[in-house]
Amino acid sequence: MIIGALMYSSPILIFVFLVRRQRRVTKRIFKARFGSLYEGLRINCLMSILSNFFFTSRRLLLIIITVFWTEYPAFQVMIYIFFSQLNIMYLIHYKPYESPETNKGEIFNEACVLAAGYHLFIFTDFVDSIDIKETGGMGIVVVILANFGINILLQLWETMKKIPSMCRRVRNYCMTKEVQVTKKEETQVVLESAQETVEAFQLKKKINKDSTTKYLTSDQFRFKTPGLNLWAPTTFAEMYPENETESNKVKINAKLQKRKKLKSFVKSKLSSPQKSIISLKQNLPLQDMPKLYSPEFTRNNSQQPSSTISPSHRHDFSSSKSLISMARIEPLSIATIMSRSQINGTSTMVSNGETQSTFNRLTILNSGFLQIERNINPQEDDDYNVKPYQAPTFD
To answer: Region labeled Disordered — which residues (predicted)?
Structure first.
């Protein structure tokens, strides 16, 4: 009962609601909630907004007439035609729909409904001929087929008109997609190039870090010569990054890494005659190494200026054969201090009761290796230079 009452009263409720809320039909919130009541209609005219009200009212009246006035078929047809004519006049005068094509289509459809309504008089009691009723039935079928056919053609025409725009949209979409893919590929290439650059930089940094790593432990430097505090060649071996392990890697003292100014550090070492040392503690792993100039050597060479050094010390070697050993050191810092410099020290070897004068040579190469040669015969060495070594100066 309640549902029936709501159904019959729905047109009146729609009419009252839209009339009272006419000024709010343009509001976004109101349109989101109740926009289906006037969707596709012109909202600047109240009669246009009430188009759905007229539509539901007409359908409701036709249902009531069809159900309750079965004894009066002629009146049913007359009321049906009357409402159809009113609807056509309403559509022609107010044009409630926003689209002109929709208005024309509704007028055509209502005209077909009106034409079919006129054929309904043939099926009343006023006409007794069966042939006329069959002819009227065929007329209604033709009207319905014409309505369907024309509507389908109109829909096809509208679709054909939209095909170029659809093709343009598809082409633009494909072009946009292609551009996006191209940009993505270019971005990927740029990212890969950047990644390769970063990896190359990291690899270079790792190589530089590995090349400056100190691979000699403090146990390998326990042996010291009496006169010149150098490494003994028999106490260490040549080592490269691929042979690096945690056990033989020497970490540089953190305090020495914080020394940013080598100038003041070297000058402090050269200021005292008892400590005439060029200490490379910042570059080599062994503490107090290398002490290139011992106190004994300083006493023996006190006549010479502090900037010129000609080492001389005495040491007994077990063999007269010249030995060469290398240790990896930090190339840049060493090259800053000495560029392919040589520190030569002479010694006297005692072998089989005979005394033979030899010399020892420490060479710091630009490649970052520290080369130590010992027990070299001056007569057999072409590079022997008796000229005193010129110590590097730091401004």
So the answer is: 291-317
Return the closest-CA partner of residue 290 out of 331, 230, 330. 230
> DSSP readout, 266-311?
HHHHHSSGGG-----TTTSSSTT--B-S-HHHHHHTTTS-TTEE--
pTM score over 0.70: no
DSSP assigned state of 99: S
Question: What does the alpha-carbon distance between residue 206 and residue 141 come to, in Å, rounded to a whole number?
Answer: 90
Tokens of 352: 């089989």
pLDDT tens digits for 233-266? 333 333 334 444 444 444 444 445 555 445 455 5
User: What pLDDT digit, counting tens, does each position of 131-187 carry?
Assistant: 888 888 999 999 999 999 999 998 898 888 888 888 888 888 888 878 777 777 777
> Distance (Å, rounded) from C-alpha 74 to C-alpha 294?
138
Q: Which residue has the tokens 């010149």?
A: 228
Q: Which two tokens stand for residue 183?
A: 């940009």
The domain spans of the chain are 2-127, 218-390
User: Smallest Cα–Cα separation from 234: which of 243, 225, 244?
Assistant: 225
Q: Map tokens 């009106």 to a residue.
A: 114
For residue 21, give both structure tokens.
């809320």
Neighbouring residues of 105: CB distance < 8 A, sequence distance ≥ 6: 151, 154
Tokens describing residue 173: 């979409």
Is residue 372 within 8 A of residue 322, CB to CB? The reply is: no
Asked whether 267 and 253 are in contact (CB, 8 A), the reply is: no
